[in-house]
Amino acid sequence: MTVRDEPAPAGARRIALVALGLLAVYVLALRALLAPGGGLLGRYSIRGEGGGEILVHERLDPDLNFPVPQRLDSAYIFHWDMRKHGFPATMPPYSIHWTGLLRVPGPGTYGFSADVQGAAGLQIDGSPIDLQPDTLTERTLAAGWHAIAFDYALGQGDARLVLSWTPPGQTSRAIPSRFFAPDAAAVAADSTRHGPGWALLAAGAVAAFACAWLNRRGRGPVAGWIAALRAERVTLALGAIIVLAAFLRFHDHALVPFHHETADEYQHAWEGWSLLHTGVPAAWSMFPDRYPMSETVDFRWFGDRYVLVRPYFDHPPLFSVLVGLVTSIGQGASYTIPWDFLSGTLPMMRVVPILLSLAGIVLLYRLARAYGVSERAALLGTLVYATLPVIVLAHRLVKAESLLAVLFMGAILAAHRHQLSGRIADAAVAGILGGLSIWTKATGVAVVGVVLVLLLSARRVRGALLALGLAAGFVALYLAYAWAQDFGIFLKVIEAQSTSKWVGLESLQDLLTGKIVTKYFGRGWYLWLLLCAGLAAFRKERGLLLPLAVYGTLIAMTADHRVIYGWYRIPFYPFLCVAAGAALERMLARADLYRVFPFAITAVSTGALYAWSQAPMIVQSKQAVALFAALALLPFLVRLAYESPLTERIARLATWALLAAFLITSLVTVDGLLEIYAGTRGLR
User: Fold this and answer.
1) CA distances from 220 to 23, 160, 383 (A)
2) pTM score above 0.85
């Protein structure tokens, strides 16, 4: 079983890392120079006691297209200052004022309409335009820039605002960002910065051509650099995948999953923050009756109820401490008022699981190689891990399973190294990571169990005993932590957790469905991952089924089958993606119907449905099914009926086209996740 790749020449990795850094800077510079700078300045306010407006937040909004409430509400939830605005027991009535410029591309009569939940008012060039429901209001406008102002107010309910226009001879649509600007200075800046952007793009193309030409001649330092980059192709590929994964995970990361879709995200942040600042963990609890009444606080925050308890014991504290540390740094202030822990917002909290998932990409590659899959299969597995929307969403959740997944991979890699080398240090690392897993989540005991099975199966008894002893030491430390806080409350909480579960076989079935929290999402992708794991049972990478079996059984035995939450699956994903990478490699190599069709009918079709969910006439048509069948079936049926070099070549091209469609639809889905996720059904 291969654990390490062949070493590259000295200095090659440094050259590869420098190249990755330069490429990242180049792409960011291009994005900053060529990205459209349109938008309107929005001032988000609430009404004060005297009737006047109090500014809460100010930002540049690219357009006035808010079909779901999260983007508008976030301006208040994530930027609320309790010292200035008081305690937000409910979401207050609010008003928003947008100002800027509207570019009219050509003279004519333009129709305006607004889909609004609440009250709205539009002015162009200081003149009001009456907006009525399901009514188009027309106005004759000259070409050029016009002053625009839009007012929106919401007393209660879910915010919704979409400002649309109907240019002459066209259909109604939301006004795109490129037709807005905050002021004249932004218009001038937008026109001047595009020139350097195109120049930088041209310079990059010339530099790439020059490097290729010099490398072809085999002269100078460039040829040596190219050779070093070839030797570090894995480093380059992993770096590019990590950059892509970071971009996808940080895109609208604070908005999807939704605020309070699971209150557990705040649970971890509050526990860690209070432990760091006061020495006593405090968070909302599922078992407030097990805590003294004097140590509980029942309150509402932005309309949601929480019962805060201390000292909090519902979950081990390791992951919470990481989140509390990041939120404390993000606050930039010390503990001054009792409610300061509420200042830690989702944009800050979710940085922790995202960074953990990026580190997991490197571990995933090494784990795949340890299971014996090829370099290409391992990279394909990391690509799936980086881009699959159901995994991208899961890696934003502030849940301890994000840390548990990283510790799980690290412990297995250490156990594999000990299996091969017998070095006692590797067994110690496996034991320490297993112990940290228990400090992360009670289900972390599965990590210890898998490590012991791996070491005992390789007859590494001493290593197994060492790992078990170290893990037991961490359990003892956790009990000491509980004793230092309040061991009586700790025992009551443990008793409540062990007696409140209605466990049944349904929990095993529920683990086979795709969820993020409780909303079903990406079931086709998840089904494909499970199919890949099933195929792995007959391949050399079958060992990855061990952690899946142990962790999955433990979850089924300890979780209430009525609430098998989506984040329970996060530790599954690395092992499922290893299986997916191996399956994709075999599919690309064989390009036959039997390997392609399961992938097409589950993973590719799911991505297509989500990516084009905003265009129901496309996805709900016979033409769409026929087009999909032509790509997913026809080339392989023809090859099956008549094998020839031509039919084989066509089938291979179709296979690569399906893989490209899988990746492209995943990227499109992540780009539009806010509206796509909000439109899915199946809350349970």
Assistant:
1) 21, 61, 34
2) yes
